Amino acid sequence: MLNYKVEQERTAKLRYVKKTDGLDIEQESKNSSNEGAPEFKNIKKLEDNIHKPSGSSVQLMCPATGNPIPTITWTRNNERTIGRVSYKKWSIQMDDATTEDSGVYKCTICNKLGCIEHSTKVTIRDRLRSPPIISDKFPQNQTVLAHNSTYLECRVVSDLEPSIKWFRYVNQNVPIKQLEQVALKLVNKSPPNNSSLLENVITLTAEPDRPNILNFTNVTHREEL
Fold first, then answer.
1. Where are the domains of the chain?
2. What is the predicted pLDDT for the residue at 68?
3. How far apart are CA 119 and CA 40, in angstroms?
4. CB neighbours of 176 closer than 8 A, spacing ≥ 6?
């Protein structure tokens, strides 16, 4: 009669114990059930578009997991030759980027069980005076449990130091365009055309040294939009 006992180790082992004349004869077999295809560690943090002025540093990251440990390959515009970049485990970095570094960069991550990939469009523009550009993925909607903490982030590309202000729109029945116009008037310190809308626009305060981050602590339903 065979008795079975499972031991949990880095790789699972199945141990067969056979009773023979009062002695235990053991055999072990490896179990490869913990193998897995590559997966991104946090796909929400992967960027689809990056805008930078010339002379900036650009870092692209594709952190992933998998067993066996996957390999990563980078291409730009589907070509393996990328140019002046430094490689790290799950990222590449370009320093003093120029307009010639613009393109679609793709990371391809593979092991014997499969491959995953992600593409990021990088746009490097010459330094010209122009309005700030807000990243199309920020700020992001947040879902958080009551009485927990969270934050909103506004990522901005600008040749000059931008001034960032945060506002909360209260009345959902008022068209968002009208509330945005009121907020712009407040930023420019000019009276809005319709002062009755002022009560629907609340100015929020961020930390002075990090104006692009708006922190929330001990959130309640009052912060919901």
1. 36-125, 133-171+179-206
2. 94
3. 13
4. 169
